[in-house]
Amino acid sequence: MCLKQYCVITAATLCLLCCASASAASSVTTYTMTATEMAALDSRLSLLQQQTKSTKQALAESQAALSASKAELSKLKTESIKLQIELQA
Q1: What is the pLDDT of residues 50-68, one digit of tens each?
Q2: What residues have CB less than 8 Å from 41, skipping those under 6 apart?
């Protein structure tokens, strides 16, 4: 009896999996694109890649400038504290 139930459950599971994969395959949509549209898409992609590259470069430069500014601020704070101590003395 257990073998029979196992076979029924296995068959039902396989049927559900087959139905699910068939419905998933039928829901896939195919799009067509003309050569002109493809060229325009390639052009936009190239432009976006160039913009991304220049943005990353600008970000790196800004981060370097920020690090330098933080170092300078730290130096100036230390100097300010030293001067305040000298003034109090």
Answers
A1: 999 999 999 999 999 999 9
A2: 33
